[in-house]
Amino acid sequence: MSYARTLLSRGEEVVFESRQHWFAVVAHTWGFIIAAILSLAVAIWAASRPSSESLGTLGQILEIAALLVLLGSLARIGLIIWAWRNQEWLVTNRRIIKAQGILNKSMGDSSLEKVNDAILSQSMIGRLVGYGNLDILTAAEEPSSVSDFPMLADAVQFKIAMLNQKHALEFPDEARPPVQRPAAPPLMQRPAPMPPRAGSRGLIRAGRHASDGRHASRGRGVHPGTTRGAARPRPHHPEGVRSQEARHPGADVGG
Predict the structure, then answer these.
(1) Predicted confidence (pLDDT) per residue in 60-105, tens digit
(2) More confident of the two residues 65 and 203
(3) Residue 144 and residue 97: Cα distance in Å, rounded?
């Protein structure tokens, strides 16, 4: 997370964020870039000379000096790019913040209510590539650390965002209402099953089930109208047959 964003107060939001244009990096490093190119050329020239044409001690000193200049120029270019990447020039809904630095951080801020005017100047090249110099005039008696933004990237959008937030603070009734998202539609619920109508398939199926139950009960020996656990009626036998079977248990009745 960025350093400036960790210092935001409760309810404060970043509206616009910018830094210096990459043209500022080129403006601060072009001398070191030329020095690095020249030192690299000298080092290659000194190393590629044959031993018969070597300059002796002077050649070694020249080669070492070229390597030192090359390393120093590259280190300086890297530090400038690193510092440029750590620049944070913010417009929030309450103030303007200017934070920069690699290890040692410096941060300045100014309330939007104290901003009186903002002067934007752009050269022809600045208009073509998209940067400008923004000077902010505040009501503070002492000069503020956020009074100037040299070679600011997207300077026009930065100024517009600052003025819009200042207007929103001074006239909160004219601020746009927050966009409300439409509520999610309710989940679809299956309707309750309707009772079968007269003459519908449900009654026909019910009648079929009832008839199947009667046939099944007859096949098991259960008469309709009786319960399942009721005793079956015994067949009626004449008294004479019973007495004859008791007297002759092994005899055939028909013989």
Answers:
(1) 788 888 899 999 999 999 999 999 999 999 999 999 999 988 888 8
(2) 65
(3) 11
The position carrying tokens 């020239």 is 45
Structure tokens at 179: 């966009």
* pTM exceeding the 0.85 threshold for the entire prediction: no
Q: What is the domain class of 7-172 according to CATH?
A: mainly beta
When pLDDT is averaged across residues 42-59 and rounded to a whole number, the result is 71
Q: Residue 146's CB: how many other CB atoms inside 10 A?
A: 19
Which token pair is 237?
A: 């036998």
Task: Tell me which residue of 85, 105, 98 sits closest to 149, measured CA to CA.
Answer: 98
